[in-house]
Amino acid sequence: MSGTFLGMPKFPVAAKKALSDSQLRRNLAHATGTIRAKRANVVGEVAEWEQLRLAGAAIKNRVLRHLPDYLEQLEKSLTAAGATVHWANDAAEANRIVVDIAKLHEADEVVKVKSMATQEIDLNGALEAAGIRAWETDLAELIVQLGDDLPSHILVPAIHRNRAEVREIFLREMGKAGKPAPADLTDEPKRLAEAARSHLREKFLRARVAVSGANFAVAETGTLTVVESEGNGRMCLTLPEVLVSVVGIEKVLPTYQDLDVMLQLLPRSSTGERMNPYTSMWTGVTPGDGPQEVHVVLLDNGRTNVLADPTGRQALRCIRCSACLNVCPVYERTGGHAYGSVYPGPIGAILTPQLRGSDPQTDSLPYASSLCGACFEVCPVRIDIPEVLVHLRGKVVDAHKKESSIPSVQDMAMKAASWTLSSARRTGAAEKAAALGSRVVGKRARTAPGGRKVLGSLPGPAAGWSQSRDIPLPAAESFRDWWKRTDGGRIADDDTTGGAPW
């Protein structure tokens, strides 16, 4: 599989393929169910959890309202601490900056901390094109890289793989990229982690340049923060001589006090832990300790465009916890690859179209949802993902209207429904027609679980809609007819007050 999501099919096509993979569904159901349970337990311990969510949302909203000011403050703080700040308008510019720094130090390899921003810009591809090998050091990212795969989850990129598959990848591929896996490797998690640790150790000790992202950047001090569970990040952040951090401009926080709120929200929402095993913070250059050359690349790559949308800008509050993925019924059944984006799941369905712009693939993402609202309920910074999904769907529909004078099937269906329901007489006629249709097709109806009578596939353009849904058999008698022949109807006829009988 290629190292980029570009060129992926629209979500319905990719999702249909994913749904046919029973092993994938088992892997996802097991993993997301485990994470959901852990999160629920640790969140339930915090009596003021909702107040924390409100505080987190307020902090991020304040940042977005005054983003230029906080970014300028961050630049000054970083520069005063000995770091070099670079501004990157897009992926190409960010990649060029990182490649140039690596070349300046004659590095033919870099070690990387897990970073969504560097995946977003396909930094690994840019480094490889320049003859520089990027080694992923996060265990799940290592699995994805060795397997020539693509990440499918924000927190657990290899969530679509089970232990047996990971063992096979390690045995087959590790020797091609460095120290091979032990011949007697089993699929016991401890043994798999041990093999990865041994494989990566030589890379940590050899690399002169490291690349990271940042979970948060504190404007008042210039402090960058990375949270992780394995310690690989700390190895990258402390051993190499040069550290380059690619940071989305929305990751800035005003103060250390704001960081305190986020470090309570993030671990509980992501890994289901009270705190992350490793929380690393660094502020510029400290002589004789850690990297002696620190670069920070502040990345826009479409974020300014997202900021301009009063409804859509909520997506920039995201702290990449992945809680929305773990509760989403659509993600659990299709996995992350179906979204065709570094950012899968509900947050990807609203962030990717805004960052990448409109095309057939991104236009399909706002529809990759049942709008159940579970994502909003677990979001630690209260992003109203269903609201943004509906907002983006409206944009897709409006864009279609501008591009084509021919109405879509959906447009015609909505206009027909509006015409019918705007008149009591037409609505009554439609009810009678539905009742007649129910008696005609009732013999072909089947019984669904629970004893409900449902139709099969609908004809014509409606066939696609009914392929994955049970269509209830229309009632043989309309509500109005029922009302007329029951006591309710007689009471209404006898009522002299002119109002409803209740």
From TrEMBL:
Its domain of life reads Bacteria
Q: Give start and end of each LUD domain.
A: 71-299
Query: InterPro entries in the record, alphabetically?
Result: 4Fe4S_Fe-S-bd (IPR017896), 4Fe4S_Fe_S_CS (IPR017900), FTHF_cligase-like_sf (IPR024185), Helical_ferredxn (IPR009051), LUD_dom (IPR003741), LutB/LldF (IPR004452), NagB/RpiA_transferase-like (IPR037171)
Positions of region (Disordered): 448-470
| SUPFAM superfamilies with a match to the protein in the record | 4Fe-4S ferredoxins (SSF54862), NagB/RpiA/CoA transferase-like (SSF100950)
Stretches assigned to the 4Fe-4S ferredoxin-type domain:
315-383
Q: Give TM segment ranges.
A: none
Q: Which UniProt keywords apply?
A: 4Fe-4S, Electron transport, Iron, Iron-sulfur, Metal-binding, Repeat, Transport
Q: Which Pfam families match?
A: Fer4_8 (PF13183), LUD_dom (PF02589)
**Alphabetical list of PANTHER family matching this protein:** LACTATE UTILIZATION PROTEIN B
- Entry protein name: LutB/LldF family L-lactate oxidation iron-sulfur protein
Which species is the source of this protein?
A: Amycolatopsis ultiminotia
